[in-house]
UniProtKB/TrEMBL annotation:
It comes from the Eukaryota. Transmembrane segments: none annotated. Residues 1-176 form the FAM194 C-terminal domain. This is ERIP6 protein. It comes from Bucorvus abyssinicus. PANTHER family: GLUTAMATE RICH 6 (PTHR23093:SF18), SIMILAR TO CHROMOSOME 3 OPEN READING FRAME 20 (PTHR23093). The gene is Erich6. Signal peptide: none annotated.
Length: 213
């Protein structure tokens, strides 16, 4: 960045290349986006909420409350549930210097513009279909990703409770009111992500403690 802070870094993790976009801060800079050559990518809002999430099957665009605005599947996706949903090109700004263009699975462009100079990175990937016609299984989420998702859902639960208290301060029955369906769904999905046998009991317990607090 013009400030001298690191904006974009590309690193190798075993057989994968990972492109990381950071916010313009010297210390404790938050991650604005992560793109992996395995096909898993995430872009976030400035407040840390997930904005775009992609894998080898397709992707989805979320608003800041976590509700899905748009979803799509890649042409070579092996998903059998529901019709193929084509991608409509997406253009977003992560901040005033970094933008992302999603045109296809193998054409995802991260552009950096500052002081009259521009750099572009193609962080897209083309997953090859195996001889059996099946795509390779997606990689498991790491410890940090699972905990981040758990804390995000927990914050959304608390915000929903806070809205209930502000809107109906004298309603003694508000504790019995069910939360929005999308929060229940997201909680169940996170708990399902912790079911594989290679997830440690400690991590599984930590995620459950966060979402059930």
């Amino acid at each position: 960045y013009p400030s001298g802070n690191l904006a974009i870094i590309v690193v190798r993790n075993k057989t994968q290349l990972i492109c990381i976009v950071q916010e313009d801060k010297l210390n404790n800079a938050k991650i604005a986006a992560v793109f992996s050559s395995s096909g898993r990518s995430t872009c976030c809002y400035p407040n840390g909420a997930v904005r775009i999430n992609m894998n080898i099957q397709g992707g989805q665009y979320l608003d800041q409350a976590g509700s899905r605005v748009r979803r799509w599947t890649w042409p070579n996706s092996s998903m059998s549930s529901g019709p193929h949903i084509p991608l409509r090109p997406i253009f977003i700004s992560l901040n005033q210097h970094v933008g992302v263009r999603i045109l296809s699975q193998d054409k995802i462009i991260v552009s950096f513009l500052a002081m009259g100079q521009q750099a572009k990175f193609n962080v897209g990937t083309k997953v090859q279909v195996s001889d059996s016609g099946l795509l390779p299984p997606p990689t498991q989420l790491g410890k940090e990703e699972l905990l981040l998702l758990a804390f995000r859902v927990r914050i959304l639960w608390l915000l929903d409770r806070l809205r209930g208290c502000l809107n109906f301060p004298s309603n003694k029955q508000r504790d019995k009111v069910k939360p929005p369906a999308y929060l229940i769904t997201q909680t169940l999905k996170i708990l399902q992500l912790c079911t594989p046998s290679d997830i440690s009991d400690e991590l599984r317990s930590s995620v459950r403690a966060v979402v059930n607090a």
